[in-house]
Amino acid sequence: MALVIRPPGEGDRQAWGRLYQGYADFYQVNQTEEMRDRVWSWIAEGRAGQQARVADLDGQLVGFAHFRPFLRPLAASTGGYLDDLFVDPELRGGGVGRALLLELAQIAAAEGWSVIRWITAAENVTARRLYDSLATATPWVTYDMRPEAG
Length: 150
Prior knowledge:
By secondary structure, the chain is of the alpha+beta class. It is built from four helices and five strands. It has a five-stranded mixed beta sheet with strand order 1-2-3-4-5, sandwiched between helices.
């Protein structure tokens, strides 16, 4: 079995959409086909630097990572932000997520990014075991503010 981490191609839309729906289901987020079309277009266009890698196992997509650069004014540097990481539940623990993250580390090194940052749910214990083996959890607390708050 050969695992290849690569940029997505036009022919990957349907398989990627199946995985992305699984990602939304995991986080209990309602998502429509129209929403997936929008995200796919962001990736295809590189909107706001949005990029992706897919995990291809013998011609079948089994995972993905969505990421983009972000400016870090205090550090006067650019970092990479991992928006989404998902692996087919049947293949978790088999190295697919690690391969996607290591590919992202190589991209970060090539781009000169100073850090790769992401968030995850506190109860996502399986993923956190992988993350803890490759990265350092931070003490920062995340907030979301709605536009109508002001």
